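Researcher: Next entry in the queue.
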Amino acid sequence: MSIENLHKSWVQLSEKYFKNDAEIAFLWNKIKNNYSSKNRYYHNLMHIASMLEKASENKNEIHNYDELRFAIWFHDIIYTSTSKRNEEKSADFAKSALKNIVKQKIDVKIIYQLIISTKKHQIILNNNFDNAFLLDFDLSILGQEWKIYENYIQNIRKEYKIYPDFLYNPARKKVLLSFLNREKLYFTNKYQDLFEEKARQNLTKEIELLS
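Model: Structure for this entry, 211 residues:
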């Protein structure tokens, strides 16, 4: 998805809720600039575009398409490799940004919790199947063919280039093992069928490379 199409997607969503065009433009510039900053090798606009495309593909199974899309747009808007509060800061940003909605009601609390759920990649909204979709879209990269996954892990490493290997490698392995130790990596049957097996293969291979 080109940046022009991303912009169009943002405007089409936000103009349903914001009365002020200046607010829509301001938030777009904030989104574009944050996701395009020089240290964003993976958590960038391409990542957002990929998740939005997956949301579109599964639109008929999503309960609240707009809430989910707002969560996608904002879930990594604040991202610093040295911070342990990126998700909380991103959720706070979304809450502040969406407070000026005047055209239609939307559940900002749900959007906030959806973003928070990406911190530990665990469903925290009971009876909200959209939470499962958000997490599965976010981790779909884990189940791609090795060349794509390899590019992903290289980009993640670049985002954490401030850390030497002797610090990065064991920390990364700990994260990967925490995923492997789960009964299932994905929450929806569809994504379990599509990506579960390949994702486990990729995680295992990366752990071997880090050893």
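Model: The chain has a mean pLDDT of 96.
Researcher: Noted, moving on.
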